[in-house]
Structures are given as structure tokens and as C-alpha cells.
Design brief:
By secondary structure, this protein is mostly helical. The protein folds into 2 domains: about 220 residues, no CATH class; about 180 residues, no CATH class. The protein has 18 helices and no strands. Helix 7 runs antiparallel to helix 8 and helix 13 packs parallel to helix 17. The chain is globular and about 70 Å long. The relative contact order is 0.09. Belongs to the glycosyltransferase 87 family. It comes from Gordonia neofelifaecis NRRL B-59395.
Length: about 400
Amino acid sequence: MESQRIISLILWPITVMMIIQRSLILGVNGHRTDDFTPVYNAAFNFLNRLPVYNENYGTVDPHYLYPPSGTMLMAPLAVLNPEYARWLFIAVSVAVLVVCAYLLTRMFGFSYDSWVFPAVLFFFFSTETVAHTLIFTNFNGFVLLGMIAFMMLMMSRHDLWAGVAIGLTIAVKPVLAPLLLLVLFNRQWKILITAIGVPLVLNVLAWPLSKDPMDFVNRTVPYLGETRDYYNSSITGNAAYFGIDSWLAWLMRIAFVVMAVFSLWFLYKYYRRTDELLWLTTSSGVLLGTTFLVGSLGQGYYSMLLFPLLMTVFLKGSTMRNWPAWLGVYGCMTFDVFDSKKWEPFGRYLEYNKVPLGWSLLMISVFCVLLFRYLDLREAKALGGSPDGPENGSPDGSPGDTAVSAA
């Protein structure tokens, strides 16, 4: 269509320039927060048989937290000097993010030459999560690639390779580990062989090559279980920073877990067999978003792992077809800064809370859409209609979307 061609003509030059600005300018410039230097130092120490896990965790500087398997995979970076290694990491991260946008476009049924591909790329690089992944220079882009590959391979029933995709990310950064619950739900047991086996084998290989592997167990693992009050957008991190009573933090955590349990149950019951893509992408978003909120550490740039959930807006029955959900997306992904010279306390509150409030609103919106659909089903059953699911007239998106939009 002519309108789609026009959209592509507008988006491509803007998107390309945005990618260049985010990578060559902001990325290379860097920031006072530097996630790459601890990784480079750990890789250098690993190659030279020096201690890796000897940091002072009492400081607020970025710390190296990867297990020995992750250290071994990162070790080739130390072959280059630090500056060139960082530039290479940024360049590869940009390429990985472009591939992620392409794979998401294809996964949701659009071609590479449609307007959707440049639109997805434009959205990617307009967000805080992608910008800070490049500026701070961390591993998140590779985690997103592993997540998308895992989903695509899981749906195509290439189970062992799906396990490899997620297993490699877990070997470095276990943020995707909750998604193994969906493997259990779908009874694709073979995925667990490689999903657990890959990080296990890599750790076995890396353990004797490390100078101090037990320090990861004795020092780093306990630190990972602690709640820190800086660079932490989880409920407990936010509570620690603002001095909120622990009982209230626990109440909020329990509430979000309850909402997640209901959402996962409803999605499993009504969508797993009829729309696997919608089930898998929405369930993954619920699992990860809830984990970010209720875990000990949730950082804003984790939000890129919610991109598959956001893409469901193109699917009938999506929980993303309402404005509160996208207001939540704005909160957890905006690159806007709310620090205010005129209203300093209010601006600081908004700046420090935009990510947790965004995650919270997004998870509440998904829950409410699914709850309204459940109530519609109950009403239909009471009136003698079909209660069986989407294939027999269950909610297709409109009842829930209307309800949440009016809420």
C-alpha cells in the first residue's frame, strides 16, 4: 500500500541516524556508569590467572557478577586493549539489536521490507533500555537475542537448540531463567537438557581455569541475594531508597505475584493451544516483568526483555491494546529525564520512580485485561454460552480491551 511505503520512507533515514547517534556518539562517549570495565578487568584477570571475584561490594560502582562460565565466554575481549574492546562490543551489540528487531518482525508475520521493521527499529533505539545498554556497554542485547531465538526455536519444536539459546544467556546472566517455567508448562522436556546442560558444562570447563571460583560462591552469590538501595528499580530497592516499611513492600510483592499467577493460569488455560505465539510472548512478559518487580534487583535496562510482549499489540487478543499498558511502557522505557530545577523533590521522585511505576502499571494492565476476560467468560457461562476458550468464542480481545480502556 502507498501509505505503508510512505511510512517506510520516513522511518528509515530517521532510524539510521538515531542508531548512529546512540552508538557512535552516546555509546562511545560513555557515562559515569560503566558496566564494561568490570567485565573487561574480569576477562583480563581470567586470562592471566588472577583473582576475579575480589571486588569491594560496599561501593556503589558497577560490580562484576557473572559466574565463571560467563567469565570464560567474555575472556576473548581482553585480547584487545580496553578502548578497542569496548568499541567492538558496542558495534556487535548494535548488530545484535538490529537482528533482534528483524527476528521479532518475522516472528510476528511481517516481512523485512514492510513498514514494521523500521518501526520496530525506531522504537528500539528511542528507548532508555537500548540507549543505556549501549552507553553503559552491557550484555543485555545478547540476552534479548537469546530470548527471541529461544522462543522461535521453541515454537518450531527445535527443542535442543532452543535450550542452547537460553542456556548460553543463563551461563552469563541468568535473568531469563524464569522462562524455563514455560518450558515445563508446554511439556517440552528436551529444552531443559541443553538449557541446564550448557551453563553446567561451561561452568565445569571454566572452574579449573579460574583463580578463585569459590569466591563467586562465597562472596558474589550472597551479594546477589541482597537488596541494594541504588540503581535498583525493584519494589524492595525502591522501598530501601525511600524508607518504605518492609511490611508494605512485602504486601506489594505478594500482590504482584498473585496477579502474575492468575495471568499465567488464564493464558495457559485459554491461549496455549490456540495461539502459541500470544501465549508465549505474553506469559514471558508477565514472568519477567514480575521478576523485575519482586526480585532483589531490577534495573531499568532490563525492560528490553519486554519487547516481545509489546509486539503482541499486532495480535488479536493482545493485552497491549489499551492506553494504560502503553503509559506503563512509557514509564519503564522512556529516555526522558524528569529532574527539575523548579520542582526538585517532585522531579526527583518521578525520575527515580518512572521505571518501577511503569513496570507496575504494565503488569496491572495485563492482569486487568485478563481478569475482565475471565469475568466475561463466567458471565457467558452463566447465561448458557460457551466457556471453553478462544476457539469456542472465548474473549478475543475486545471485551477486555474495552473494559480496561474504560477503567
